[in-house]
């Protein structure tokens, strides 16, 4: 046994010193990326171990030639090591292929880890059958028959793995989720980018840098939002309203019209619109003593047109996607004027900057149309009201 140990240790030293180091140096000097992946996934190390195991067979027969009772158990032991060694070599090769495919555009976003795990499970099962046959000397069918009898228990034990396997196939086939997709699953507190898709779990890095782990089969059984369509479209939706105080809405008079004509974006529209209104009123409503008779321009209507002209000329607003400024139903919070449009940049910070810039401008511009933005009374408003009542009573 001492002689066997010395021989194997010496062979291992030679393999690692010369064979392994030589292959590592060759891979580093090569322009091919695949051999670098092989080194990273310990392919060379596993190959050297496999060579060492193969070398053990003649050494065992030589050293234990006078101890025949030892040869058969040792050969079984090294046969088992041989199966494990081959499994490790194949696993290293598969992991290297996965790393290579990750660099290919055709496999971008595909759940390659899930595929690798499925293949590994299959390989471990085959290896287990071979090891069972080696130890017992029985046919592999005897093992498979025993497995069939225990299938109910195995299905219970591996329930999550089976569900994850089926879900992974459905997710990949239907292209529901890719690595890098932004998904939302409020039920599980997930709102961020998918960083990893495995056989059993999907890892999502939320915007606060926390990690949420979701069972893969929940992507099939529960609903979630995938923002990939927005990212691929090149535009990010803005849907926000300015609530106008209804009591500030009125018909604009001639003085207000002349003042509003000073706004460069709005002047052409006012002139064209005023000409249409004057022509219509002269034909149908010659008596204009009552403003509700006939057609008139309103300050809120002109403000809505100004908003539309403003965003149509804004370089940060996507002009080839839906763009509109609309009135929503009046509520107890006023009349909402909603902007529905898309930004030209989907980057979150750029998007937020654009939206803030647009609404900064509109909130400042609203007063030039003699309009007011609705806001609930603040505490200082209530105190001022109380002070005014006290002044009246005094």
TrEMBL record:
Subcellular location, record wording: Cell inner membrane
Transmembrane annotation, as ranges: 6-24, 45-65, 77-94, 115-135, 141-158
Main location as per UniProt: membrane
GO cellular component, one term: plasma membrane
Keyword Magnesium: no
Record's keyword terms, sorted: Cell inner membrane, Cell membrane, Membrane, Stress response, Transmembrane, Transmembrane helix
GO MF term list: mechanosensitive monoatomic ion channel activity
Ranges of residues in domain Mechanosensitive ion channel MscS: 160-228
Pfam families found in the cross-reference section: MS_channel_2nd
Presence of keyword Iron-sulfur: no
GO BP terms in the entry: cellular response to osmotic stress
Membrane topology: Multi-pass membrane protein
Name of this protein: Mechanosensing system component YbdG
Organism: Moheibacter lacus
């Amino acid at each position: 046994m001492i002689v066997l140990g010395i021989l194997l240790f010496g062979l291992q030293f030679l393999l690692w010193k010369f064979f392994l180091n030589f292959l590592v140096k060759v891979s580093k000097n090569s322009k091919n990326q695949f051999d670098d992946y092989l080194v990273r996934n310990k392919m060379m190390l596993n190959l050297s171990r496999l060579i060492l195991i193969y070398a053990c067979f003649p050494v065992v027969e030589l050293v234990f030639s006078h101890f025949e009772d030892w040869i058969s158990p040792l050969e079984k032991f090294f046969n088992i090591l041989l199966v494990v060694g081959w499994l490790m070599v194949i696993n290293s090769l598969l992991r290297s292929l996965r790393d290579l495919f990750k660099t290919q555009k055709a496999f971008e976003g595909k759940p390659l880890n899930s595929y690798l795990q499925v293949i590994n499970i299959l390989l471990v099962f085959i290896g287990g059958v071979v090891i069972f046959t080696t130890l017992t000397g029985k046919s592999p069918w005897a093992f498979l028959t025993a497995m069939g009898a225990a299938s109910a228990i195995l299905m219970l034990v591996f329930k999550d793995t089976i569900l994850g396997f089926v879900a992974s196939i459905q997710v990949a086939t239907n292209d529901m989720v890719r690595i890098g997709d932004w998904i939302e699953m409020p039920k599980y507190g997930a709102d961020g980018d998918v960083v990893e898709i495995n056989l059993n779990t999907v890892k999502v890095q939320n915007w606060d840098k926390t990690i949420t782990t979701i069972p893969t089969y929940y992507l099939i059984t529960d609903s979630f939002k995938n923002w990939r369509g927005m990212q691929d479209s090149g535009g990010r939706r803005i849907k926000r309203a300015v609530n106008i105080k209804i009591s500030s809405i009125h018909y604009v008079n001639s003085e207000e019209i002349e003042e509003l004509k000073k706004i460069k974006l709005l002047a052409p529209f006012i002139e064209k619109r005023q000409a249409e209104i004057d022509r219509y009123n002269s034909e149908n409503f010659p008596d204009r003593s009552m403003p509700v008779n006939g057609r008139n321009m309103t300050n809120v209507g002109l403000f809505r047109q100004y908003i539309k002209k403003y965003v149509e000329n804004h370089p940060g607003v996507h002009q080839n996607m839906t763009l509109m400024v609309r009135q929503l139903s009046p509520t107890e919070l006023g009349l909402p004027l909603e902007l529905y449009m898309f930004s030209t940049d989907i980057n979150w910070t750029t998007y937020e900057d654009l939206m803030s810039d647009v609404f900064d401008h509109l909130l400042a511009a609203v007063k030039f149309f003699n309009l007011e933005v609705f806001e609930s009374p603040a505490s200082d408003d209530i105190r001022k009201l109380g002070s005014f009542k006290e002044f009246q009573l005094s």
